[in-house]
Amino acid sequence: MDENNDPTWFTSRDLFAVHIGCHVTRMEEGYAEAQTELEDYHKNGLGMAHGGVIYSLADLAFAAASNSRRETAVSINATISYMRPITSGLIRAEARETASNRKLATYIVTVYDQQDTACAVFQGTVFKKGANAS
Questions:
Q1: Which candidate, 29, 24, 12, 7, places its Cα nearest to that of 100?
Q2: Residue 27 belongs to domain with CATH number
Q3: Contact at 8 Å (CB) between 124 and 106?
Q4: Which residues lie closer than 8 Å to 6 by C-beta, 6 or more apart?
Q5: At 120, is the secondary structure helix, strand, or coil?
Q6: In whole angstroms, how far apart are CA 76 and each of 27, 41, 50?
């Protein structure tokens, strides 16, 4: 695998993501996937994936996609809509760049459950600082 597309360089630096069991599994220019296996400690009091876990997974995919060109990009805005609960299995987030100019880029991240059903949609915008992110 081309080292520029190797997602481990990004995940290994995100100690919060590592701590909660989320990792980047695929990374290309303007695109990334991240996943985690839903564990009991990820669940809220109703037995569903905690919104913070879903948001954190989406945010990791967003961060990886927006930094995939190894130029530092930082979030300036992000929102999420939860559409369906997730109660077990693998959770996957897929981030895609939808617009980009010299200083800003926008991404849509869809979060899927184990059956590949869309369960949440995250939208984020980054500011491109331009410094090397590797």
A1: 29
A2: 3.10.129.10
A3: yes
A4: 27
A5: strand
A6: 21, 29, 23
What is the number of domains present in the chain? 1
* pLDDT surpassing 90 at residue 82: yes
Pairing status of strand 118-132 against strand 71-82: antiparallel
Please state, in angstroms and rounded to a whole number, the distance separating the CA atoms of residues 134 and 132. Answer: 6
What pLDDT is attached to residue 104? 97
Position 17 scores a pLDDT of 94
- Mean residue pLDDT of the chain comes to 93
Q: Which domain holds residue 49?
A: 3-132
d(CA 94, CA 47): 24
Render pLDDT for 16-34 as a digit per residue (tens, 0 to 9): 999 999 999 999 999 999 9
**Separation of alpha carbons 99 and 116, rounded Å:** 25
What does the block give as tokens for 118? 């869309």
Q: What is the pLDDT, as a whole number, of residue 7?
A: 76
